[in-house]
Amino acid sequence: MKKTIAVMMSLVMLFALATAVSAATVTVDGNFDDSIWSDTWTTVNSANGKWQTPLAEGVTRDQAYDVQYAVEGDFVYVAVKTNFAPIGVDPYGNGKGTNLRFWIFVEGNKVGDVEYTLYNYFVNFAYNPAGDVLTVYQNSEATENKAAVIDTPAGTEAKGVVEGDSWNVELKIPFAAFGATDSLEAFVTLSSPLSVNGTEAVENNALYFPAFSAGTEEDTFANAPFKKWESAKALKIALTAEGDVSEDVSEPAEESKTPDTSDNAALYAVVALVTLLGAAIVVKARKA
What we know:
Number of strands: 17
CATH class of the largest domain: Mainly Beta
Strand content: 25-35%
Helix content: 10-25%
């Protein structure tokens, strides 16, 4: 009997160990080699994105980026890869180089007794030849754009890697740190100049995804996240769900493949092996 109990306790420990080892461990390194990432990307360009500064009639802009997201544990992970090499100006700064922003809105978040009508926070990741820079901003006003730098919340990470003519970025966003208990809404912005003239950025512009509604002649930014939050247009990211942005938009990604489930397969194999081994040991213990 004692042998049987000892064996069963060992099995429980082995099962717990197998589960812990197989739980997805995401390394934020800009390499997209973790199992949370699928081969399905949404390509954002002039057709399905929104340029902050409208392009003049007849003018085209080839800059684009691929994006997807995944939820794992208490975090949302965002992956972005550009179709152009990042551009940096020294000193770096908004409007002076390639820059990624993740705008966050949580329904019910307030400033005092007033609920937000535009973004709550944005996570800013700026390309800098001397080392990329992560900064988090909180909007201190519920109905106006008053962004202020705050201490980076614990668990928030970002890493960019230049690979050929592409800037590959991974973001890690903790739900709770931004006031989200079960879901949040988001827009993604990738801004960049076309070139650099000395220390001056040439024709900087920002490409939003999803596209927000057109404004007015008097205010082309009327529906941008820093003026008004359009929930009907924003990405909806649930804490309990996993997915990529291709599920939220009508524009399909250029590729669509089955997500990598190798981690799950490994878990099932380990559990099956442990179960068979345990059964054999129990039988042997009973005979003894």
